[in-house]
Amino acid sequence: MSNSLLSYVGWTFLPNVRNAFLLFAPASVGLFYGITIRAGDPKPQPGTPRYLKHRRRIHIAVIIVYLLYTIYEADYWIQQNGDFYQDLGLPIDVDEKKIKARFRRLAAIHHPDKVNSPADHAEAEDYFVKLKSAQDTLTNPTQRFAYERFGPDILQWQHVSSIRDYLSVGFQGLIPLYGGSVAFMMLLSMGGYLQSGRYWRYLIFSCLAVLEVYTLTRPYPPPVLSKVLNPLLTTITSHPPLLPFQLLVLAHKMTITVFIAFSQLSPLFANSTPPTSSSAPTSDEQRLVRLENLAQANEIEAARLLALEMAPFVGDEEGQKNLRGKVKEWLVQNTIRADPEVRDAMGRALQRRRVGAPVGARYRGNG
What we know:
Layout: H1 2-13, H2 16-36, H3 49-81, H4 84-88, H5 96-110, H6 118-139, H7 141-150, H8 163-190, H9 198-217, H10 223-236, H11 244-271, H12 280-309, H13 317-336, H14 340-353, H15 359-366
């Protein structure tokens, strides 16, 4: 579990997967659109809400897949190391008589004296010692109990002869580990690193401690292993059954994986929540700023185009004066007088001026 905690520290302070995703995000989103959108159909542009939503979902998927891979990697490591039952080719519920008979059969085949090549003699000796250790451990009820719960590390323990001794030595190594883990999480919380999912993080850690204490102290494997997990593994897949200490190794790895998921995925889910009413004015202000910037840009572009049109008249004062007059006359005739409201106002003003005028003047005015 110490290696997993180091991995957790790396994910907390150096989120390299997030940084790598930021570098390759455009390519990832482009690949996603290449698969999900038909050729010729419009694709969401970078910066749009739909593009950001898809980018966030791809980021979440990348982190989840990587975390699932870490669990698979831990299980693969367990299978590669194997256990004494796999070394002897026996089921985990085998009795002592069958263990001894299986060892005698394997010893007759793999004894170092039967190896003629000097180069393979050392390897044969190591394999025979491994078989002998497996046979000695599994035929001793006390050592078998300790091996199934603490793993091959018990072979290095000294001055132990009873189940109580093995449990005492085992818990002496677990208490500092759990105490240090709790202190480590509290320090990170006080530093502001583990605010999201804090309740669930402590709840899962407590469940792990209860599972480990129950597994180590009971004479039989936990029901979740013997009645659920192992039957599924042996029935659906070719995976060998797990021993209690292997279950605890996977539980440790999955706990750290869930902790990493909380720290990496919580900001992404927080960003996906809709803005509250307090943030609405900020969005309106941002829109106003963008509109103002757009208007200024249009004004600058219009001035540039006007200067470009006036370029032939540079240095010609008389020509510029005539051009301004013509432009002014065109604006008055085509823009101001052509406006319906202006024409209506001018008509009402002319009617008021001609009230009480001679009949001939009215007709001439109307004409």
